[in-house]
Amino acid sequence: MTGKILLVTGGSRGIGAATAKRAAEQGYAVAINYKSDQEAAASIVDSIVKGGGKAVAIKGDMGVESDVARVFEAVDSKLGRLTHLVYNSGITGKNSRVENVSTQTLREVMDINVMGAFWCARAAIPRISKVKGGAGGAIVLISSVAAAMGSAGEYVWYAASKGAIDSMTIGLARELVEDGIRVNAVAPGLIATDIHAPGRLERVSPMVPMKRPGSPDEIAQSVVFLLSDASSYTTGAILRVSGGR
Ligand code: NAP
């Protein structure tokens, strides 16, 4: 083990699960947060532990402020003082044009994709910060190419939530230099996970220059790079990993 302690929010499935596995291979002790799929979270923990790594699953809704506080306290007590954070949990809400979207969908997407990212950053900073006696480290936020494309006709609010993540990445990176915390984002393109409505992967794939969706592991490798000292001069970057999209 490296002494590095990572929390991955939404680590039970998809990109978060692939990131947790890759990070564990690199020697991070990993806290895998999930919202409801306990079985999926337990199976990722199992596969990490069987491979000789250290991992725990921690339930909590990142769209609920009190859950975020509880999840960080659980990381403190189960693994120790945090050094790295991947804010990955995210939802799109049901597809529609903006004129038909419910307030509930808008609030849910903003709470999970944006408020949760701020609540997690707020909790992570004093734990990681060298100024506060921490070891220093890195934060990676999961954005989306949607931030630049706008997701017209599907979920403009989701694209807007990822635009907020991009601004947050740039601002937080500059704010946290003295704290020894690098902050970067990965903006995935079309990735083969459960987040998509049925048929969307097949429909959108031909529009990707590489003509295929990416795998969660292809995102995870970039996330782990941005967490690691291999990217020691990189902060405030938004890395598109999108097959050219
Ligand atoms: P996914 O397969 O649907 O997995 C979502 C993960 O987030 C699950 O582990 C889920 O937990 C967790 N989650 C959902 N709501 C949560 C909440 N309120 N609190 C805590 N955890 C929560 O999604 P994905 O495709 O891997 O997406 C991961 C991130 O990548 C998201 O931020 C998404 O916007 C972004 N992204 C994805 C794509 C893509 O094409 N897939 C493209 C661009 C960006 P449970 O298992 O408990 O439900």
Concise account of the structure shown:
This protein is of the alpha/beta class and 245 residues long. 43% of the residues lie in helices and 16% in strands. It has one domain: 3-Layer(aba) Sandwich (Rossmann fold).
Q: What are the salient characteristics of this protein?
A:
single chain, 245 residues, alpha/beta, Rossmann fold, seven-stranded parallel beta sheet, 8 helices, binds NADP nicotinamide-adenine-dinucleotide phosphate
Describe the 3D structure.
The protein is globular. It has one domain (5-241): Rossmann fold (3-Layer(aba) Sandwich), CATH 3.40.50.720. It is of the alpha/beta class. It is 43% helix and 16% strand. Strands 3-2-1-4-5-6-7 form a seven-stranded parallel sheet, sandwiched between helices. The structure holds NADP nicotinamide-adenine-dinucleotide phosphate.
